[in-house]
Specification:
Helix content is 19%, strand content 47%. Strands 1, 2, 3, 4, 5, 6, 7, 8, 9, 10, 11, 12, 13 and 14 form a 14-stranded antiparallel sheet that branches. It has 195 residues and is α+β, with helices and mostly antiparallel strands. It is elongated and about 100 Å long. The chain has a single domain, classed as Lipopolysaccharide (LPS) transport protein A like domain (lipopolysaccharide transport protein A fold, Sandwich), CATH 2.60.450. The chain starts with a helix and ends with a strand. The longest helix is centred in the first third of the chain and has 27 residues.
Length: 195
């Protein structure tokens, strides 16, 4: 009988003690600093709405010959609301089906008529070990072609190179079903070979 009475009292007292402990924890706990723990984008929403600016836009697509491309920017402003716009802090990720990739960053750029124009000190790194620097670079969104025609400086796996133009495109002369990509330089090519 003594044991049954103790169990009955404990069945009532233990939940009450637990409830009292939880209440004290919530009442006496420090105020949490939710402002610093949740990251917010620092954006002037009113100015962005007045200018028609888009914050953090992304474009993803696949060209007719299977290249996956992804274009991201910090912000973008449409030109005429129909066929293009300007953006800042751009990053273009370009990947061919055969595994060749190109990562391109540029301070400014835009799109028009199916062409991504990157400018203002463009840097392109390829998965084959090339780093190219130019003032302006164009990437087509319907086929796997990247071009630059305002002077190129490149660090290659075998040395340094300067040229007037550059074109990264599929080899149209290849009989292979999946045409390999060719990085072609022209216009006063100068190579410093470092074995």
């Amino acid at each position: 009988m003594n044991r049954t009475r103790i169990v009955r009292w404990l069945r009532v007292l233990l939940p009450l003690v637990a409830l009292a402990m939880l209440s004290t924890m919530f009442l006496l706990s420090r105020k949490s600093d939710t402002e610093s723990s949740i990251p917010y984008a620092e954006v002037d929403a009113k100015a962005a709405a007045e200018e028609g600016r888009i914050v953090g836009p992304e474009y993803m697509g696949v060209t007719n010959d299977g290249v996956e491309l992804s274009l991201r920017a910090a912000s973008a402003t449409p030109d005429d609301g129909v066929s293009g716009g300007q953006a800042s802090d751009l990053r273009l990720d370009w990947k061919r089906p055969d595994g060749l990739t190109a990562d391109v960053v540029a301070p400014t750029g835009g799109t028009r008529d199916g062409v991504v124009n990157l400018q203002g000190g463009v840097v392109m790194n390829t998965s084959t070990g090339w780093q190219l620097r130019t003032q302006m670079l164009q990437a087509q969104t319907d086929q796997s072609i990247i071009t630059a025609d305002q002077g190129i400086e490149a660090d290659a796996p075998f040395g340094q190179l300067q040229a007037g133009q550059m074109r990264l495109a599929p080899d149209d002369t290849s009989d292979d079903a999946q045409k390999p990509a060719i990085l072609n330089f022209s216009g006063g090519v100068r190579l410093i070979y470092q074995p």
